[in-house]
Specification:
With about 375 residues, the protein is mainly β. It contains no helices and 30 strands.
């Protein structure tokens, strides 16, 4: 029997690991880790495999990120980051970008020291909130007020770095049809393998409205090329993900009892993964082996998080969050190599727990 390692912080700094046990139908459930606690940070999370850390941001109304080890222990709090929201690592993993929704900027932190390297203003009253990346381009969802939402680009490879707003439409259409979002949109991107000729895919949608309207773009030469745009995936969207090769997008929406998959070429259906009522998180592993989904409430065996197999040799795996905790919205994030998954949850006192699990891997996958 293969074993899954679950690491979580516990009160008084004690750390425990829980081993998985095989259940019926080839599923495995990780044992419940002891209670974990610290802080209220849980807007976004990123796994840094090189530093073996998990960064968790506090959101637009706060001003810090918490830094956890793979063992779940809180190591450090980085402060003076007004409205710390979206997070994304650079391609080489040496820089952590943080969207500062309350400071109209994106800050670049050195991952080795967590000190500020650069701060990139995004313009007055822009409120950058969501981040994703393709290559050296950092894409951000921004918008402070109703129907001012849009997509921006930070090109940190140019000298000096360049910020460009209103990337959601071609420049020639901006004056007549800006296609704004209700507020800062959720963003997700594919990560084609190095040397691949496939253009990266960026998907955008507005969370928490009805119906879910999905927009698909190709990323070519630093620009977004609009593709299909339709209502898909129910209503009250909480999370988005894209398969590594960019062929499939996944939605987690409050009106559904499943994660829905759609082809990025035409938004035709590409499968469903049942989760229980109101999925709150979805994350496709970068190696294409698993699709992670989660709900606030637990399903069979008390599991709130399920890893759905996408390749031969992989199997369904279930994980519990700590007792009396709920999975955070968008509370799942993978390491860049797909070997580790961070699970972020919180309790009634708004204390945050971080678990890092290392699931077994199946055969290689594409798409």
């Amino acid at each position: 029997m293969r074993r899954q390692t679950v690491r979580a912080a516990v009160l008084m700094g004690v750390v425990a690991a829980a081993a998985g046990a095989v259940q019926g139908a080839g599923a495995a459930t990780a044992g419940e880790p002891p209670h974990a606690a610290h802080g209220t940070a849980r807007f976004a999370s990123v796994v840094d495999q090189a530093q073996r850390k998990v960064y968790v941001s506090t959101g637009p109304s706060a001003s810090a990120i918490d830094v956890y080890g793979y063992d779940g222990r809180l190591q450090q709090t980085v402060e003076h980051l007004p409205g710390a929201s979206g997070l994304v690592l650079s391609e080489d993993g040496t820089t952590l970008y943080v969207a500062l929704a309350a400071a109209d900027a994106i800050v670049a932190l050195d991952t080795a020291t967590l000190t500020e390297k650069d701060r990139h203003p995004t313009g007055a009253h822009t409120c950058p909130t969501r981040l994703t990346r393709t290559g050296t381009d950092v894409w951000f969802g921004y918008g402070c007020d109703a129907w001012t939402g849009a997509i921006g680009r930070l090109d940190d490879a140019s000298q000096p770095a360049k910020v460009t707003l209103d990337q959601q439409v071609p420049p020639e259409e901006l004056a007549t049809d800006p296609r704004r979002f209700e507020r800062a949109p959720l963003l997700a991107t594919s990560r084609p393998a190095p040397g691949s000729s496939t253009a990266p895919i960026l998907v955008a949608s507005q969370p928490h409205i009805s119906p879910v309207n999905v927009r698909v773009y190709e990323v070519k030469d630093g620009a977004l090329v609009p593709g299909v745009r339709e209502d898909r995936g129910g209503s009250n969207l909480t999370d988005l993900a894209v398969s590594p090769g960019g062929s499939t997008l996944y939605t987690a929406a409050g009106s559904q009892d499943r994660v829905d998959g759609f082809a990025t070429a035409d938004l035709s259906g590409k499968g469903v993964w049942h989760t229980g009522q109101s999925p709150t998180a979805v994350a496709a592993s970068p190696d294409g082996h698993h699709l992670a989904s989660g709900t606030h409430t637990s399903r069979g065996n008390g599991a709130s998080v399920v890893l759905h197999p996408l390749v031969n040799g992989a199997r369904e795996i279930r994980y519990r969050v700590p007792r009396d905790h709920r999975l955070a919205d968008r509370g799942l994030s993978w390491s860049a190599d797909g070997t580790a998954l961070a699970i972020v949850s919180y309790d009634a006192a708004h204390r945050t727990a971080v678990q890092v699990v290392e699931p077994p891997r199946g055969e290689a996958a594409g798409g």
